[in-house]
Amino acid sequence: MTTWIILFRGVGGATLLPVKPLAIALTEEGFEGVRTYINTGNVVLKSSDTSERVLKRITPIVLKEFDFSKAILIASTAEWAKLIADNPFPNAVCEPTKLHAYLMEREPDEVAIKALQSKAEGPDEFQIRGRVLYYYTPQGISNARLFPKIERTLGVVATARNWNTVLKLQALAEVA
User: Fold this and answer.
1) Is 111 left (phi over 0), alpha (psi -120 to 50) or beta?
2) What is the spatial order of strands in the sheet that 2-8 belongs to?
3) Is pLDDT at 176 greater than 80 in this prediction?
4) CB neighbour class for 129 (10 Å; exposed up to 12, middle 13-18, buried from 19)
5) What are phi and psi of 9, to 5 degrees?
6) Per UniProt, what is one Pfam family of this protein (predicted)?
7) 39, 73, 139, 148: least CB-packed within 10 angstroms?
8) All domains of the chain in start order, with CATH
């Protein structure tokens, strides 16, 4: 049985994914230990299925029950622990709302990474390690100039969580 961290992209604002009904629907689908964290599309659950199979089971449920058709990303607890351990900005953890981890569907190619580097200006910093982009915004995400360019420039589907959420999901996964 593997514990999976599921991230729904683009939840918030006009796109809602109510956590209690979502947890019920996923439990009824046979997933175990389903836990949700805040209304921004975060779920921890257990399954003996592969990541691909978990996503194939979740996608029709959220489409039918909640009219949710945006991307869903998944990481095992081992991948999540590596995401945390590989943080290239250890001094930024004291400002957890200014440090973000983007989980990407796949690792972007070098041309796309160089294109994003050419667009980076100001105090913001980012590094990519595998399929995770770490983004430190010392002036806050609302003032971050690179933020709206990341996905489009890299050409990969991604979803970001601030460091508070990253750590909370790890804690939920440990008790799932």
Assistant:
1) alpha
2) 32-36, 42-47, 2-8, 72-76
3) no
4) middle
5) -80, 140
6) DUF1697
7) 148
8) 2-79 (3.30.70.1280), 80-162 (3.30.70)
